Amino acid sequence: RGSKKSNVAKSGAFLVACGSRWRRGAMGVCCSAPKRDGRITLHLDSMMDRKGVRFVQNVSRIFHTNCDVAAIVFDEFFEKQKRTISKESLERFFRERQDEDPPVNLKDEYEIENAFNEFVLTGDNFVACDSLVDEDSMNEPLSHYFINSSHNTYLSGDQLFSKSSTSAIKRALLHGCRVIELDCYDGGNDGPIIMHGGTATRPITFRSAVQTIYEDGHSVSEYPVIITLENHCSCEKRDELAKILQEELREKLFIPTSSRTEKWPSPASLKGRVIIRDKLKYKQDKKGLKAEASTVGLGLLKAASGKKAGGTWALALPPSAGEGDANEEDEEVDSDNNKKPTDIIDTSLKSLVSIENVKFKSFDDAVSLDRSISCSWGEASLLSRARTTDPGIMTVFTERHLLRCYPGGLRVMSDNYDPSPAWSVGAQMAALNFQANDKPTWLNRGKFAANGGCGFIRKPRYLIDPSVPAPAGPSRALYVTIVAGSGWDNFKDADLFDAPDTYIRVTVAGNMNDSASHTTSTFNDHVRTGPRAQPYFNETFEFQIVEPELALLMFTAYDMDTTSQHDFLAQHCIPVSLLRDGVRILPLYDEEGKYVGGEKQPSACLVVMMKYK
After folding, report:
1. Rounded (10°) angle between helices 235-249 and 206-216
2. How far apart are CA 408 and CA 378, in angstroms?
3. Read out DSSP for 560-575?
4. What backbone torsions phi and psi does residue 508 show, to the nearest 5 degrees?
5. 3-to-6, 13, 494, 528, 563 alpha-carbon distances in Å
6. For a FRET experiment, which of 76, 149, 532, 574 has its CA 20 to 30 Å from that of 318?
7. In whole angstroms, what is the distance from residue 589 CA to residue 446 CA?
């Protein structure tokens, strides 16, 4: 149908200097592309906005004239000549297809279009069941949970030029994040600052960041917030950090009774609290080394000026970015195996640290420790160790110790790595750039929709107890039928020359054993608005699920391009464990996680049929 627009910005291509070579970003730019100054538009929406009432009030109810959606939904249950469904047949529909009790006070007969609107396009018919916090599951040690975690939380855009912002921290908290990372430097008269060292990112004060955590840390979840410090401050400034934490967090600050943690407290015991994760030994305390406050100004100059190479301006990367993800791991200082963490100069900050962060040496070393600790792995280390380490050894390690994983140093555009391998090995904290709005972020949002969105999900028993065998093969079959879409008027301008060529991709992800994808045919009736603009498919796909407690089901809608990468339209991700059998509606979200439509246009959705055997 002719060539479509080619949008360079959408291609996600960028080059970064890496030694004498040029390398392309590993996963491309995030879907909400930053502007030239590194900004990404941050909307202070909350996960609480994604409740069903507002969606159903505005949901689109128009479908393509060639797709008899009501007839497909009630197939085998309605009288085809009269296009009606009796009370008895509708009750059978609920029991057999929906696997639930029928509503009370049904009428004797319905036209199938009316039955479809009344019983399918409703707020209690989402594809995922209601998710509530399982209070009884929240009393185990912190190491037994996946924890919703962020990386460089304070950044509003890319890793090189964007602003540090309290709004970025607030948005992460409103999206359910429980682990906030702050990179601390000495700063000046206003006290310690937060910024990405060695770059042109603009700072905020440490105090303002902590104030935001106090104000918004428990807006959507009463369970604890963990502040993880990448601490570059001098001894004097670390005392100031401690003072600020105590002044601003007040009653929320959890102060441990001992510097040695033999067993982690539970999320339930830490409700409403903020706990501190930091090193207890610092590189800058070694003889002859100074705190890294001076690197801030140097980084600003380096990143702002860049160096010209071969006629192309090169980005100045953060220190050790060319080495992949070694930067944060190298910041950690060796911890003597069973030596008590004493002789630390800044005892005031040390007394506030509940989660001691140390450099990972080996699994044998970790097993021999007489206390529980935390460590960090970059994505390259994660993938390498996940491939080469016996699962039982990994489980012994992550049952006792806390493991945080984070994006590699070359992801300067704040794109993300796939968190699935981290979850597969039992890593509690798969830290992501929350401002990215990319596929890993959508997976993370879907995963932590479970357990009431509280930010803590108990790991499967086989990732806690090495004596419990992990699934060895497919245990259940999932059948997904994409019937039709509605609300596609929202995408009328997605393509410059024509209506979007819509297709739906259905993907199972969330762990290393469940990784499969199916794609519908492409729909285009060459009409931008009205009934003929609404796509229809009625196509069924089968997935064999190996780890249902970890698996996620993601739906993504795209506009197929013939001359450039396919354009994203909408997405929705949910845990397989929350799926409901039957005919359901699937609200569609934009890249930021907000409903598509609902203001100027009715909200977009898919009608799907699920069967989980």
Report:
1. 30
2. 6
3. --SSSPPEEEEEEEEE
4. -105, 130
5. 9, 21, 15, 17, 7
6. 149
7. 11
| Residue 111 pLDDT | 98
Two tokens, residue 474? 């497919």
Tens-place pLDDT, residues 571-612: 999 999 999 999 999 999 999 988 999 778 999 999 999 999
Residues 63/484, Cβ–Cβ less than 8 Å = yes
Q: How many whole angstroms separate alpha carbon 102 and alpha carbon 87? A: 10
3-state SS string over 48-110?
A: HHCCHHHHHHHECCCCCCCCCHHHHHCCCCCECCCCEEEHHHHHHHHHHCCCCCCCCCCCCEE
Confidence of residue 479 (pLDDT cuts 50, 70, 90): very high
d(C-alpha 315, C-alpha 299), whole Å: 12
Residue carrying structure tokens 């401002």: 435
Comparing CA positions, the residue from 577, 568, 596 lying closest to residue 510 is: 577
Q: Is the pLDDT of residue 503 over 50?
A: yes
Rounded to whole angstroms, the Cα distance separating 406 from 422 reads: 10
Query: How many whole angstroms separate alpha carbon 354 and alpha carbon 280?
Result: 11
Here the tokens at position 115 are 């039955």
In the 8-state DSSP scheme, what is residue 126? Answer: B
- pTM tops 0.90, yes or no: no
Q: Let me know: does 612 contact 581? Beta carbons within 8 Å.
A: yes
Contact 227, 182 (CB under 8 A): yes
**What are the start-end ranges of the E strands in 69-213?**
84-86, 109-111, 145-147, 179-188, 191-194, 204-205
DSSP 494: S
Residues in the chain: 613
Structure-block tokens of residue 383: 């993938």
Is the confidence at residue 257, as pLDDT, over 60?
Answer: yes
CB-based contacts of 42, cutoff 8 Å, min separation 6? 156, 165, 167, 168, 171, 435
- Residue 28: per-residue pLDDT: 31
User: CA-to-CA distance for 291 and 285, rounded, in angstroms?
Assistant: 8
Distance CA 336, CA 343 (A): 13
Strands of the 225-231 sheet, one edge to the other: 204-205, 191-194, 179-188, 225-231, 274-278, 353-356
**In whole angstroms, what is the distance from residue 422 CA to residue 447 CA?**
13
What type of residue is 73?
A: V
DSSP of 318-329: PTTGGGSSHHHH
